[in-house]
Amino acid sequence: MIEIKNVSKRFGEFKVLSDINETVERGQTMVICGPSGSGKSTLLRCVNGLEPYQEGEIIVDGVSLSDPKTNLYKLRENIGMVFQRFELYPHMTVMQNISLAPMKVRKWSKEKAQKKAAELLERVGIPEKAQSYPANLSGGQQQRVAIARSLAMEPNYMMFDEPTSALDPEMIKEVLDVMINLAKEGMTMLCVTHEMGFAREVADEIIFMDFGRIVERGTYEEFFNNPKSERAREFLKQIL
Amino acid sequence: MFDAVASNITFLLGGFGVTLQLSFFALAGGIALGALVGLGRISKNKWIYRPITLYVNFIRNLPLLLVIFWFYFVMPIIAGRPLNPFLSAVIAFIIFEATYFGEIFRAGYQSISKDLSAAAYSTGMTYTQTARYILVPIAFRRMLPSLITQSIVTFQDTSLAFVIGLQEFVRRTSIVDNMEVRSIQLYGFVAIVFFIFCFIGSKISRHFEEKGRKTGLL
């Protein structure tokens, strides 16, 4: 379970996050949407300790990130993250990209890590790309490798930071399909995305952020059919 | 055709040996110091960043010749005894080239996006693991063509050490020329030797550049 309690974050005078409260239970899929600069990505980065916050507390499986004794490296082993621009290691093959962390962090043998990587590549639908370099893959393929790389650590949570917004339209579906399957298999997911079709299919809860605050939260139907705030109505008009 | 060269070949090649030695020490020292200077230039600690930046900007705005002269005449005062020209030249070159190598290293370190290291961290890797498996290998591959190019420049620049009487390749050639008076032949020989070495070097640099471009690293 991820508990976010009264979290605020400032960059100097500017408040990027103010008073965020949210709980994500195991097995849930939460979709975060909102205009750019509303603090969605920052919120994800706070949850796995990539960014510090000044007030409040984030607790992942009972471990508080505010506690200076918490080992952030250890914490991140259980929280996978997928980025907008894929961020694959350009000097390594797909196979090496996926098996690096299990070998170095989990101390798996090379055979075990590569077997796992091969399984994951099968699962994301590109087993034939194992020996390719990221530069030779399409955006959609790169993003599926990035998902496989995160899954290789067998995390309890997966976070997605606008995973399809750098993709050509015809590649969006192949990435979303992987994410939908993942959600249906019971992965706990936090997804920053504007893909409302994805949200309709798997989101247990949608939160809408604006100016660093959670303005609105609810199920897909509540949010989509009956947005309470003017900001959310405007936003939905723009993205649909 | 190369009779004056042939009859003095041992003396001349001895000079080329000095040029190679000087280049070797200048590069080893310049690259090692440059890697640190590059780190200092991206440091968030102003007590590191400011003096390093001052040093880089100061040296880069001086002619190399001046730096060589300056060290030759000032080092004896600091050391309390006269230095031989070779040692003095090595120090001058290291101090000078480290500023250029430092800027190459800085660019290499800065070329790696924050999200790429974030991606590595989010798989649970530590700072040391991220640096070792991701940041340093990528930065090094990206820098390699520039490092080779700057090494060629350094190799060429070492001939300037002849102004402080160091008997490197060009100096020895001028000594031979004073006796034989065969300038075209002698300096032509020097040009050919320098050209061959630098041409091969630039081809190697080009090779790594193209390789990097193909794999999407540059």
Top keywords for this entry?
heterodimer; A: six-stranded mixed sheet; 10 strands; B: mainly alpha
Please give a structural write-up:
The complex is a heterodimer of chains A (about 240) and B (about 220). Chain A has about 240 residues and is an alpha/beta fold. Chain A has helices at about 40-45, 70-75, 95-105, 110-125, 140-150, 170-185, 195-200, 220-225, 230-240; strands at about 1-10, 15-25, 30-35, 55-60, 65, 80, 155-160, 190, 205-210, 215-220. In chain A, the strands form two sheets. In chain A, strands 6-7-8-3-9-10 form a six-stranded mixed beta sheet, sandwiched between helices. Chain A is globular. The two termini of chain A are about 30 Å apart. The relative contact order of chain A is 0.17. The longest helix of chain B is centred in the N-terminal third of the chain and has 33 residues, at about 10-40. The model of chain B has no long low-confidence stretch (mean pLDDT about 90). At the A-B interface, helix 2, strand 6, helix 3 and helix 5 of A face helix 6 and helix 7 of B.
